[in-house]
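Researcher: I need the complex structure. Ligand is copper (II) ion. Inputs:
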Amino acid sequence: MLSRFSLAAIIGGLLNLLYVDNAPDHLRPYVIRQYATAQSTMLPREIFRFYITGASSNNAFTLLTANAPGNPSWNVLPHIHERHFENFYCFKGRYQLWAQAQDNTTQQTRVLTQGDFGAVVRNSTHTFQTIDPDTQLGGMLVPGGFEELFLTIGNASHPSTHSPYDPAFVNQTYSLTATESDIGQQQAFDVYSQLRFQPRRDAINGTAPAGTTWHTGPNQLAEFGRPYFIANGFGPKFLNNESSYQVIQPLVSPTQAGDLNFTMSTITVSTTPPNVTVPTWNLNNIQAFQVLEGMLSIQIASYDVANLTTGDSDPYFTKAMLMSQGYDGVDQQLISRGFPWDSAMFPNRWS
Ligand SMILES: [Cu+2]
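Model: Output:
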């Protein structure tokens, strides 16, 4: 069965094997399959996989997914990270995310469905709860290395069927209480439990407080230091038409990332029109693509072409998540040579 691939294209070293089952223990180009072993780790009622680690990205970022059924309560105690910016993406199913900024302004919550995004900046109190039976969330944490927490507190789990999670989770109950020693141990990994935080339960149409815009109108990326949420397709958009059409939807731009020096965008790509040459990129920083729809073909240095696919071998429509180290990555370059665009779709005629 073909499935979604992740790819960390690290420009530089040349090694023989592009395809791996676990993220490499050092910086190098690689491709890893969705639901690969990926150091899969069991926590109560959820399995984490680590497609990019601190070791594989020279500490640029960690890319993980968590698969879980719906949970009767939060998946984790409310907590803060002082050093890590934690990005939440919904690959499928639904989960609810809560976030409150450091200055204790109004607590926000959203129910995330496929393609929705939440940016939990440093020092924001947050927690989440999975809702649907087949839910997958993505976490992109900057800087890298945050997986060490899960590898320490979880149990190694390598389902031989590569099942996203263990069906036995559905009947399991667990308690979210933490002992003093758990809390002390977690602080060493930049997790500071906020036991007095009460996640609000008054969301209507997937959002609270009242008056917030969620799947009903545009969402903006926030000023530096504030958590924010972008519903799928409702954020800012840019079109680049230098080769194929590419619609770039930034999720984290330099303003929000600040000193953490990274960006995240989705890029929707058309086919390449006749008589157009596919461009070659010369990039100085780490770029990682995770294909969401369609297929992205990438050739890295002198490796063979890698086809990152969700199963479609010759699609007319491809959408990928891009994570980029630095402020001159693929998304920022496409935006700088493109222009603001109102639609999530590329034009229906070649220009
Ligand atoms: Cu967190």
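Model: Summary of the prediction. The longest strand covers residues 85-92.
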